[in-house]
Amino acid sequence: MNPRLSPLVFGLHLAALAFALAPPVFFGAIVAPAVFHVLPTKDMAGALQSPILSKMCGLAEASFLVLFVTSWLLTRDAPKGTRALLTRLPVLGFFAALAIRQLLIPPIDKIRAEASGLIDNLPAADPSRILLDRYHRLATAFFSLQIAAALIILLATARLWSQRRDAPPAAAAAPKPVPKILDL
Q: Distance (Å, rounded) from C-alpha 46 to C-alpha 150?
């Protein structure tokens, strides 16, 4: 890669990494627990969080796509294992976010819409409640997978960057000596 573009690509890589990691951590650690604590029913909390989670997954998908491209560019000269790790993890994160947004959120919303009464009032053995709990556990697992992929990318990026900083600079070609015509 052109050495002049490397800082730009690295900056874009770090920005995408921030967008892939910070929103899910903030949502999972602060927003979701607060919403479930403040709102009176799980139905209301779920109805509020569903569109937020959908938008956040779309942001994560875009971030992981950018991470794939920047990782591919940044690891051209890296060891094969580092290159494989930094180019495959964004694909994993992308598909985890896609699975949440496309495969899990729509059926969860459908179950909530079709449930007779509040989900909170249904008996624990009700098929709708059991299915909703399964989808929720799957979404949480994919969400955790997405965060883990971003964390491992962060660690691998830090390691790659430290290796580049520790490596001796490439020897520049010595300029050709200028022949002396007159020795004054």
A: 25
Decide: 160 and 9 in contact? Cβ < 8 Å.
Answer: no
Q: What is the pLDDT of residues 57-103, one digit of tens each?
A: 999 999 999 999 999 999 988 889 999 999 999 999 999 999 999 99
What does the alpha-carbon distance between residue 45 and residue 22 come to, in Å, rounded to a whole number? 21
- Report the amino acid identity of residue 133: D
pTM recorded for the entire structure: 0.84
Instruction: Say how many C-beta atoms besides its own lie within 10 A of residue 85's C-beta.
Output: 19
| Phi, psi dihedrals of residue 173, rounded to the nearest 5° | -65, 130
Q: Is the pLDDT of residue 171 over 60?
A: no
- 117: phi > 0 → left, psi -120 to 50 → alpha, else beta; which? left
Alpha helices in the chain (DSSP H): 6-26, 32-38, 42-74, 80-98, 105-114, 127-166
Alpha-carbon distance values, 10 to 13, 66, 72, 83, 175 (Å): 5, 11, 11, 15, 31
